[in-house]
Amino acid sequence: MNIRTLTFKGGTHPPHSKKATENLPIEKANDPKIVVIPMQQHIGAPCEPIVQVGDEVKVGQKIGEAKGFVSSPVHSSVSGKVVAVEPRLYSGGMAVPCVVIESDMQYSVSPEVKPKGDIASLSADDIKSIIKEAGIVGMGGATFPTHVKLAPPPDKKVDTVILNGAECEPYLTSDHRLMLEYPEDVVLGLQALMKALGVEKGYIGIETNKPDAIEKVYEAAKGIDGIEVVALKTKYPQGAEKQLIYACTKREVPSGGLPADAGVVVNNVGTAAAVAKAIKTGMPLVERIVTITGAGVNQPKNLMVRIGTSFREIIEQCGGLKGKVGKVIAGGPMMGITQFSLDIPAIKGTSGILVLSEEEAKLPEPSNCIRCGKCVEVCPINLMPVNISTCSLADKHEQAEALNALDCIECGSCSFVCPAKRPLVDSIRVSKREIMARRRKAQSK
Amino acid sequence: MENTSFKVSSSPHIRSGETTQRIMLDVIIALMPALFAGVFYFGFKALTLTVTAVVFAVAAEVVMQKIMGKPVTVNDLSAVVTGILIAFNVPASLPIWMVAVGSVFAIAIAKQCFGGLGFNFINPALAARAMLLASWPVDMTGWVAPRADAVSTATPLAILGGDATGQALPSVMDLFIGNVGGCIGETSALALLIGAAYLLYRGVISHRIPAAYIGTVAVLAFLFGGVNPVTMIYHVFAGGLFLGAIFMATDYSTSPMSAKGQIIFGIGCGMLTSIIRFYGGYPEGVSYSILLMNLATPLIDRYTMPRKFGEVKKSA
Predict the structure, then answer these.
(1) CA-nearest residue of chain B to A413?
(2) Which of A9, A164, A237, B45 is deepest in the core (most CB within 10 A)?
(3) What is the block-wise mean pLDDT of chain B (316 residues), using blocks of 10 residues?
């Protein structure tokens, strides 16, 4: 294997904490009796439910129609009967319209689900529409609709597709297992994405702490023109879009711009595998791999979970909660979202369910900033987090803006390293929201 | 039994093990070789002065924080570091009560009156040194010879500057290991370098300020000293340069945060030190140089904001 090892400037080294699940093969999760499928599992406009209480639905049947361009349809993950269409709590922290389906445990597949043929026989537009109709969104967690990324504005010349297999979030191993067990799907998905965009160059970037995945994907991609598997230095946030693009191409996405401004489209390896599946089988995105881990779970696992299965059921299959639980997090420990209930469904962006013990979840007491500059050193965007934070805490959001608060990618590296345990990224987030709110207000005037 | 009260907070949900206390402890550990050297060369009095300085620094912090109704934070060990550094900046012959006054001044005035840890605009230990030097100049320059009780001597820089006629320059080796006259903590470049290696290894300081500072002094001493490598060596190893460059110019609160700013700061310290030593009326220039650069730190910070990732070049 002749592989380049690449990286970006800045970043930090949180403990990997992946040992518990990195060697556990993906298991099929138990069949849920009830699934709660949110109409908003993506960034953009929520879907309009197109089924009603009492309707019979089948696996892969569309139950939510995308509204607007930046949106993505939603499909049933089971066959059975719709028992409710109502707002329910989801992992984003609020209630959104959901379709609740009682499974008949038959898993009869919708007649619309048909193999789409091989890539060579499909045009770029065919692939785009398959992806759009399959409800595929960014599966790394950000859940940006994939078909939107595939339609960059005509003035932006995209020449590269990068697959993100960094999985730099500690604890999570869902992408790792995917790459080990389905490397062909990852590569096939990349080929489809490249064809859809009409580009010749594709990268698959994987952190060096997953040498087995690098090897498997390398083997799967061997001999395919234009695809390069690259090793990425194990460093957080290696999988952040802009940092990944820089590592692979040495191009910087301009401030405030999109990856397409640097000629690149980035997708998660899980997204690519979902694209491959949608082409090979016609099955839309109705299940995903979820890593269930942390000190608060009895038996950590990597599970293939049907969308809409509740966290409670998933955790029960992992031996239930262990000891005193402090936090339940959808996603990883660096950027995941804490949940206050287990009665929320796994969605397209649920890469992991992390349960921290009470001890681990203790909130540190902040003390005076000692100006050590560690936050400045680790910031992957070269900001001075402490200065923005100071402005934010003093409600001086214009000053925070002048210090480039809006460029913050909220990776949390600054808060992670801060010896004084200051709420750095927290306060920068406040400023970002405040600045955006003011801008919207100014625009509407 | 289900716990229904999960904690909800904003990410990140894990924090590094690094704490302020651990950083200060590392600095204290790094100062230990120099303390041993100080006690070895200047006797038990050096230890007494150091302990006194630490005790008064910590006590001053407690008292001030109580008076101001703030939480007492002596556990962060920053007052201990300040105490040790004050003692390191005085001669072993100094009356003990004077070092106590220095400690109280450093903590109560230079640190707590400006908001406490992280908010002081000048290095408290150096502020105390400047105050002591201005108040009791004779006591503050009453150098004793190493390993000899109460024999007065001159510092190598004073000899080099011609202020102490009739005394011979010590050998370079004596200078390096610290067998010369001077303040308690400053004489042994070797001991200070061991401390520096530890701090660099632990990632507490970066090499930028010390390297820029010492490098600048070396270059300027070579040039100002008549292109003489011997003069250069004496200027680098003598006096408080290593103590200042490694332990005081790197003080987080009073030095710039960006990489570029730190290099500018180090070079600035080096230039001021060289100018004071060669053209000023004072053989030693480290402490005033650092104090002056402390004052320039906010300005340096402002003009050395790192170029943000993806910054679009503004067309002229």
Answers:
(1) B12
(2) A164
(3) 74 94 97 96 94 98 96 95 97 95 97 94 96 93 75 77 70 86 91 97 96 97 90 89 96 94 97 93 88 96 90 56
Query: How far is the C-alpha of A318 from the C-alpha of A321, rounded, in Å?
Result: 8
Alpha helix positions (H), A11-165: 19-22, 124-133, 146-149
- DSSP, residue by residue, A199-215: -SEEEEEEETT-HHHHH
Residues in chain A with CB shorter than 8 Å from the CB of B308 are 255, 381-383, 404, 407
Residue A113 amino acid letter: V
How far apart, in Å, are the Cα atoms of B84 and each of A371, B34, B145, B237? 21, 10, 21, 21
Instruction: List the A160-165 sheet strands across, edge first.
Output: A5-6, A227-232, A201-207, A160-165, A264-268
Chain B contact for A426, CB < 8 A?
yes
Task: State the sign of the Cα–Cα–Cα–Cα dihedral A112, A113, A114, A118.
Answer: positive
The answer, for A339 touching chain B at a CB cutoff of 8 Å, is: yes
pLDDT, tens digit (0-9, with 9 covering 90-100), for B235-286: 999 889 999 999 999 999 999 999 999 999 999 999 999 999 999 877 788 9
CB contact under 8 A, B11 and A336: yes
Interface subset of A 267-296, CB within 8 angstroms of B: none
How far is the first Cα of chain B from the last one, in angstroms, to the nearest whole number? 67
Q: Which residues, at least 6 apart from B70, have a Cβ–Cβ distance to it below 8 Å?
A: B116
Q: Determine, for residues B13 and A333 on separate chains, whether the beta-carbon distance falls below 8 Å.
A: yes
pLDDT digits (tens, 9 = 90+) for A77-131: 999 999 999 999 999 888 999 999 999 999 999 998 999 989 999 999 999 999 9
Q: Do A425 and B6 touch (CB under 8 A)?
A: no
| Close Cβ partners of B154 (under 8 Å, ≥ 6 residues apart) | B143, B163, B164, B167, B181
The per-residue pLDDT for range B174-188, each reduced to its tens digit, is 888 888 888 999 989
- Of A170, A409, A97, A150, which is closest to residue A271 (Cα–Cα)? A150
Q: For residue B307, what is the nearest residue in chain A, using CA coordinates?
A: A382
Query: Over the stretch A302-357, which tens digit does the pLDDT of each residue have?
Result: 999 999 999 999 999 999 999 999 999 999 999 999 998 999 999 999 999 999 99
Burial class (CB in 10 A: 0-12, 13-18, 19+), A311: buried
Single-letter amino acid, residue A183: P
CB nearest to A338's CB, from B7, B305, B306: B7
